[in-house]
Write a structure and sequence with these properties.
With 348 residues, the protein is an alpha/beta fold. Helix content is 50%, strand content 17%.
Length: 348
């Protein structure tokens, strides 16, 4: 088959300070077994020698090269999308590498499954050219997978993705304010289109100190913003709860202060409801409660006092952790004062 008879695949490589890696990324594209590829490399204001490296490669392989000041990853991807002409679209980070038949396999899948808007596959983790781990996508799904993605039941490796370019006409471009633009995009695509899974290795993901995926705290905050965009979905609250549990475990390793906020908040809520239980105990029921648990020296007034303290503590913690408004804070203090008056006056 003639090269021009094949569907054109537009491939964007955004580069920022990857002079030591970008050559491998580019050559993994130009050496693909599939030949009808439009390669666009955009340097996003690199401060190292990336531009010189790419210019030399552009002269040799004749691809489109753009160099300009830094605008960020999402803006760079959007710029490439707008000038590209392909039927299909891929993006390759300048520190990653494609397996040489990646594009061929995915074009074949997309052409034979026209109801799918996007497809993805497995990746191999690479550390200084040494294979660290061959990673198959855990719990990988096909079809309409929005709920599965929202619930973090599986993760799509951005390195392995191919999608129909005309999708951007209906769902818009990458969010230039988001720190993890890929997860946001996969959710928007899966909300309207089927997504396919190829159980094959499609690329090498390089592990090194400047990976965006290592910037844990920024990812934590960005992911919460993305989930909140889907607050009207039926699984939103379940997804938010699962997000909290996942990130509590992650942050516990390197960001204990952020993890403690979640732990303290839940502890305060639990203490509040335990205290609320005590306040509704009558003197008679309280005596029964004391006899059951053999509490000889605790009075009902003491438990009421504990309740007041815990409510106040919870309000302070919530205010400091979640920046609730001053109005909400002082309503809480007012409610505490109200309860105090109507408890202590009759008992004093």
């Amino acid at each position: 088959m003639n090269k021009t008879d094949l569907p054109l695949v537009s491939l964007i490589i955004p580069c920022y300070n990857h002079e030591q890696y970008v050559t491998e990324a580019i050559t993994s594209v130009v050496n693909q077994s599939y030949q009808n590829i439009e390669l666009i490399v955009i340097d996003d204001g690199s401060k190292d020698n990336s531009v010189k490296v790419i210019e030399k490669l552009a002269d040799e392989y004749e691809f489109v090269f753009i160099h300009r000041k830094n605008k960020g990853l999402s803006a760079t991807l959007n710029e490439g999308i707008k000038i590209s002409k392909g039927k299909y679209f891929c993006a390759l980070a300048s520190d990653d590498i494609y397996i040489l038949d990646k594009i061929e396999k995915q074009v074949l899948f997309m052409e034979n499954n026209k109801e799918y808007g996007m497809c993805y596959g497995n990746m191999i983790q690479l550390d200084n050219k040494k294979i660290v781990n061959k990673t198959k996508v855990k719990n990988a799904k096909n079809g309409f997978v929005f709920d599965e993605l929202l619930m973090f039941n599986f993760v799509i490796p951005a390195l392995t993705v191919m999608l129909k370019k005309d999708i951007f006409n209906s769902i818009g471009f990458f969010d230039e304010k988001s720190f993890i633009e890929d997860y946001d995009m996969w959710l928007r695509i899966s909300d309207k289109y089927k997504i396919g899974y190829l159980n094959q290795y499609l690329g090498y993901y390089r592990i090194h100190e400047t990976n965006i995926s290592k910037q844990t705290l920024n990812m934590y905050k960005a992911q919460k913003i993305i989930i909140q965009k889907w607050s009207e979905c039926k699984n939103y609250h379940k997804a938010l709860k699962k997000w909290k549990m996942i990130w509590f475990n992650v942050l516990s390793l390197n960001h204990k202060k952020e993890a403690n906020k979640y732990f303290i908040h839940n502890s305060a809520v639990l203490a509040f409801f335990l205290s609320l239980f005590f306040i509704f105990l009558s003197e008679r029921k309280f005596r029964i409660f004391k006899s059951i648990f053999k509490l000889k020296y605790i009075s009902l007034i003491f438990l009421y006092t504990l309740f007041i303290v815990l409510v106040s503590l919870m309000i302070i913690i919530l205010h400091q952790t979640y920046d609730i408004t001053y109005t909400t804070k002082y309503i809480g203090y007012g409610a505490t004062l109200f309860i105090t008056i109507f408890i202590y006056v009759p008992l004093s």
